[in-house]
Hints:
Elements: H1 3-12, E1 21-25, E2 30-39, E3 43-50, E4 58-63, E5 67-72, H2 78-84, H3 95-100, H4 119-138
Amino acid sequence: MRRDDCVELFGRIPAEVHPQVNVVLRGQGMITVDTVVGFEPGYLALRGREGGSTDEARAFFVPYEEIAYLRVERVVKLGELRAMLGLPDEPPPPAEAAAAEPEATPAPVAVTPAPPLDPAAIAKQNLLARIRAARTNAGKVS
């Protein structure tokens, strides 16, 4: 990642989200950002902690070319991501277009019961299926 890309990305991510950003390195190492201190010409200076470590408030000087990507470590809504990228929210489909299209009647769907999640019930269903298959095959004469 280049310096300009890194500066631009951090500029697009709201400051209150910065502590939820992970800097993933080319070797798949990870640094969880606490505070971005500065964007120096050759490296990113930040305070944070290494992924998998509980050592907080450490100083990191990460060369831009070692940064593989940035990741926001939480659920991000599509509208929020579009806002970070400076894209407008997608408008809902126009009501006229939806009303102009004839509604297709859905075909009836056969409802099948959900498979049981209990191991004993699964075993019972498997056994019944094998018994039914054996009865069906027993009635056939070669």
